[in-house]
Amino acid sequence: MTRLLILILLIASPVWAAEWPTKPGDVPLTPTELEALAGRTLTFYDDGQSSFSVGGAYSYTYASGESAFGTYSIAEDGSVCIQYRNGFDRCDLYVRSGERLILIDQKGDRYPVRPE
């Protein structure tokens, strides 16, 4: 019975509850900094753009000009979770590493944001 309960809890737990693969010097954004994403567009070095609307809407525009739409929320662990209209979802952790803002995805891949 205990194993079944543990399995149910593991399945029900969000993926973003796992430990994030940060590096020494990475400082996760504070709750205030995360809330300040609303109304901002972050541009990555591949020319992709993440746009966070004040009302919780989200879009990612690829360099090709195509866009994916959804909503975003801030999870308890400080990650930013996106639920796309197509059913896909993901969570990312934004950190400051020195002067750089970096997105870390669930696989541990790092994507620096261009300075504004």
Mind explaining what this structure looks like?
With 116 residues, this protein is mainly beta. Helices cover 14% and strands 41% of the residues. The chain is built from 2 helices and 9 strands; from the N terminus they run αβαββββββββ. The chain has helices at residues 2-12, 31-35, and strands at residues 26-28, 40-43, 49-52, 57-61, 67-74, 80-84, 89-97, 100-105, 110-112. Strands 1, 2, 3, 4, 5, 6, 7, 8 and 9 form a 9-stranded antiparallel beta sheet that branches. A hairpin with a 5-residue loop joins β4 and β5 (67-74). The longest helix has 11 residues, at 2-12. 10% of the residues are buried. Mean pLDDT is 87; it is low at 1-17.
Q: Determine the N-to-C terminus distance.
A: 54 Å
Number of strands: 9
How many H/I helical runs? Answer: 2
Rounded to an integer in angstroms, the radius of gyration calculated over CA atoms is 15 Å
